[in-house]
Specification:
Order of helices and strands: EEHHEHEHEHEHEHEHEH
CATH class of the largest domain: Alpha Beta
Strand content: 15-25%
Number of domains: 2
Largest sheet: 7 strands, mixed
Shape: globular
Structural class: alpha/beta
Radius of gyration: 21 Å
Distance between the termini: 36 Å
Strand order of the largest sheet: 5-4-3-6-8-7-9
Number of helices: 9
CATH superfamily of the largest domain: Spore Coat Polysaccharide Biosynthesis Protein SpsA, Chain A
Length: 342
C-alpha cells in the first residue's frame, strides 16, 4: 500500500517492487525483509522516517536504494525537502550510506580552465616543501592555469620561511599567513577566500596525501558540485579513528547526512558550491560539516572517491588535545542550532 509521508511524498511500502527494481543489490528482496532483519525497532524507524531527508534522486547517488528510486521515476527537487511530479519517492536508510562509489572514475582528468589548491599548515616545516613539490608535479595535467596556496596558521617553526622561499622563485605558489594560530576552520576559510580558480581543492599540509589521486577526483566532479575523498587505508592510530567515528556519528544524528570519512582533508569543490561568508561554525573541524550541509541546501550533490593515505613522515599531528576535540563537538551543536534557525 501507499502511505502519505510527513514531507508530502508518497511512501512506498510494497514488496512487489523488490525483485524488479534493484533492491536485491544488497541481498534483500524487499524493504519489509530489510526491516525484518533488524527487528521491530528498525521497522518502526523505517515506517516513521522513510521519506524524511531522502537523497535527491536527480543526483543519481550510486547507492542501490537511491538508484532504485531514480528508476522508479522519483523527481526530488534539489532542496531535498519537497517532491515534484507524480512519481513515487523512497529514501535509503542512512545505514546503507557507506560512501561507496559504484561507478569508478577514469584516470584521465578533464581539462578545466583553472584550479586553486591550498594546504592549511601548522608547524609543517619538514613537510611543506614536499607538499608543494607534489602539487606542482601533478597539477599541469589537470589545468593550464593553477595556483598553490600555503595557509600558514601561525606556525612557530620555519613553515612560512620554507614555503616563502619557493614562492619567491615560482609565481604559481603563494603563502598566506595568520599572525597567530587561529584553528583549522579559520585556515580553511582563509584558503577559500584566497583561491581564485574555477575549482578549489584543499588537502592537509602534512604530506599524508598525494595529488596523484586528484585526476580521478576531478573526473568524478563532472555531475556534482563537490567531491569528498575517503581514506582507503587510513594510516592513523586507533584513537584518531575512534574520534573520527564518533565525530561522523554526531554529524549524522544532528545534521542528517552521512559521509564515509568526514574529516578526510582531501576535498574538491566547484567555486559556486563554496560559501565564503556567514559561517556558523567556529575555528574547529565543524567547518567541514557546514560546507557539506550548506552546499546540499544550495542544491549541489556530491560523490565520494577513495584516496591513498600515507603515514606521516615528519612533524607532530595537531588537533589531538582534549580541548580541541571538545570544542569541535560544541561547534557541531552550535552549527545544528544555527542551521535549524536559518
Amino acid at each position: 500500500m501507499f502511505r502519505r509521508s510527513r514531507c508530502g511524498g508518497l511512501q512506498a511500502w510494497q514488496d512487489r517492487w523488490a525483485g524488479r527494481r534493484g533492491f536485491g543489490a544488497r541481498g534483500l528482496r524487499s524493504p519489509t525483509q530489510w526491516t525484518r532483519r533488524r527487528g521491530a525497532r528498525a521497522t518502526r524507524w523505517a515506517r516513521s522516517r522513510w521519506c524524511r531527508k531522502r537523497a535527491c534522486a536527480r543526483s543519481r547517488s550510486y547507492v542501490a536504494w537511491d538508484y532504485a528510486a531514480y528508476q522508479l521515476g522519483a523527481d526530488v527537487c534539489h532542496s531535498h525537502r519537497r517532491t515534484s511530479g507524480s512519481g513515487p519517492s523512497i529514501r535509503a536508510r542512512p545505514d546503507s550510506y557507506r560512501g561507496t562509489v559504484l561507478q569508478q572514475a577514469s584516470d584521465s582528468p578533464r581539462q578545466w580552465a583553472s584550479i586553486s589548491v591550498f594546504f592549511p599548515c601548522h608547524n609543517e616545516e619538514e613537510n611543506v616543501e614536499q607538499v608543494i613539490g607534489n602539487a606542482l608535479e601533478h597539477l599541469p595535467a589537470i589545468a593550464d592555469d593553477f595556483e598553490v596556496i600555503i595557509v600558514n596558521d601561525g606556525s612557530g617553526d620555519d613553515t612560512a620561511v620554507r614555503a616563502g622561499a619557493i614562492a619567491e622563485n615560482d609565481s604559481r605558489v603563494r603563502v598566506v599567513s595568520h599572525e597567530t594560530n587561529m584553528g583549522y576552520g579559520r585556515a580553511l576559510r582563509t584558503g577559500f577566500e584566497a583561491a581564485t580558480g574555477d575549482l578549489v581543492f584543499c588537502a592537509d599540509g602534512d604530506g599524508q596525501f598525494s595529488l596523484a589521486d586528484l585526476p580521478a577526483v576531478v573526473n568524478a566532479l563532472a555531475d556534482h558540485g563537490f567531491v569528498l575523498g575517503y581514506r582507503i587505508n587510513r594510516a592513523d592510530p586507533f584513537y584518531r579513528r575512534l574520534n573520527a567515528w564518533l565525530w561522523g556519528l554526531s554529524v549524522r544524528v544532528l545534521l542528517g547526512f552521512r559521509v564515509r570519512d568526514l574529516d578526510c582533508g582531501f576535498k574538491l569543490y566547484r567555486r559556486e558550491a563554496v560559501p565564503v561568508d556567514d559561517f556558523i561554525s567556529g575555528r574547529g573541524a565543524a567547518i567541514s560539516a557546514e560546507l557539506i550541509a550548506r552546499a546540499l541546501r544550495g542544491g549541489f550533490s556530491f560523490t565520494q572517491v577513495g584516496v591513498t593515505h600515507y603515514p606521516r613522515r615528519a612533524g607532530v599531528q595537531s588537533g589531538n588535545s582534549p580541548r580541541v576535540i571538545l570544542n569541535s563537538f560544541v561547534d557541531i551543536i552550535q552549527l545544528w542550532r544555527g542551521l535549524r534557525s536559518s
